[in-house]
Design goal:
7-stranded mixed beta sheet; single chain; 334 residues; Metallo-beta-lactamase, Chain A; 7 helices; Rossmann fold; DNA ligase-associated DEXH box helicase; 19 strands; alpha/beta; 2 domains; MBL
């Protein structure tokens, strides 16, 4: 086999699968697109024909409207695109997120999109998919990024809520994935009280609930008396943390859920009083463990902290290369 298959072509605006005449997560409109998940740096409007999981299509429909040609493909189902055998497998990132496995002329390539390995009650767990070429993200591809147990971070949130009964805890969380993760992790630890939502989070949380994710009681901040928000947990987009909107809340303690909260300077820049290190991306140990377990002949790194992961592969005698894809955000959506 060649060290770089002629049928998979990395370009700045996406990965082109030549025999299928299809692109994976293209950053500009194309005629045929395979979409790993619904975040805006992977799913865009304007494509003609699209293949994605039913949940990802529902997310895309909510955000962009329907594509002219939508093709839902469930986890493990296979399709043939001009001789390329394609299947989608859980990535553990957000609802509907998938790794895309492609097999052509005896060679197998897996594109992970974004992924994580640790349990998440809001989406299907990551599935290990052996392959010859493993195309991975590296958002947190530095040894300093080792995420703590999620239950410990949620425990900090609950402790702050108990210690601050006359105010509320305002948690910044992205609309797709992070907000629902925080909600379901709270429920997993037995928190059954209503959780209050900024209006920008309501539709996506409803979509998750419609797809069978147990969210518990959720209420809008809009229309709720300020006094009734005392002793509660409120979720809002990160952009709302310092916005005029937050003035309607009673003495809020500002928090944010993100893998980047490991970096103290980032928390300070945002004025975050309670940083919660909760990420929807693999940390350093998850990245390196996954590469070991997949045991590919080659690793391609799509975005993030590429240099350290390339060096790790070199030390472990694994061929690796960096792909300069444009339009990728550091985590979730900016």
């Amino acid at each position: 086999m060649s060290s770089a298959p002629h049928w998979i072509e990395p370009h700045p605006h996406g990965i082109f699968v030549r025999p299928a005449n299809a692109w994976i997560d293209p950053s500009r409109p194309v005629s045929r697109a395979l979409i790993t998940h619904g975040h805006a740096d992977h799913a865009r409007g304007g494509h003609d024909a699209v293949w994605a999981t039913p949940e990802t299509l529902a997310i895309i429909n909510l955000r962009y409207g329907r594509y002219p040609g939508e093709n839902a493909i469930g986890y493990g189902d296979a399709l043939d695109l001009n001789g390329v055998k394609v299947s989608f497998h859980p990535a553990g990132h957000v609802l509907g997120s998938a790794q895309i496995r492609m097999e052509y002329q005896g060679e197998t390539v897996v594109v992970t999109g974004d992924f994580k390995r640790r349990p998440d009650p809001s989406c299907a767990p990551f599935e290990l998919v052996p392959c010859d070429i493993f195309i991975t993200e590296a958002t947190f591809g530095l040894p300093v990024f080792r995420h703590p147990p999620t239950s410990e971070e949620i425990g900090k949130l609950l402790a702050m809520r108990e210690a601050h009964p006359e105010g509320c805890v305002l948690v910044g969380a992205y609309a797709l994935g992070k907000a629902q993760r925080v909600i379901t992790e709270l429920r997993a630890l037995g928190y059954d009280d209503p959780i209050y939502l900024h209006g920008a989070l309501e539709k996506m949380c409803a979509l998750y609930a419609d797809h069978g994710v147990a969210m518990g009681p959720l209420l809008p901040v809009a229309g709720t008396d300020k006094a009734d928000l005392r002793g509660t947990i409120v979720l809002a987009p990160p952009s709302a943390l310092a916005d005029r909107w937050s003035r309607r809340l009673p003495d809020p303690v500002t928090s944010m859920a993100s893998g980047w909260m490991r970096v103290r300077a980032r928390a300070q820049q945002r004025g975050v009083e309670l940083p919660l290190i909760i990420s929807d991306h693999a940390d350093w140990d998850e990245l390196t463990t996954t590469i070991r377990e997949v045991a590919p002949k080659q690793v391609w790194v799509t975005h993030g902290r590429e240099e350290a992961l390339l060096r790790w592969c070199e030390l472990h005698q694994i061929k690796a290369r960096a792909l300069a894809l444009i339009g990728r955000e550091d985590e979730d959506e900016g």
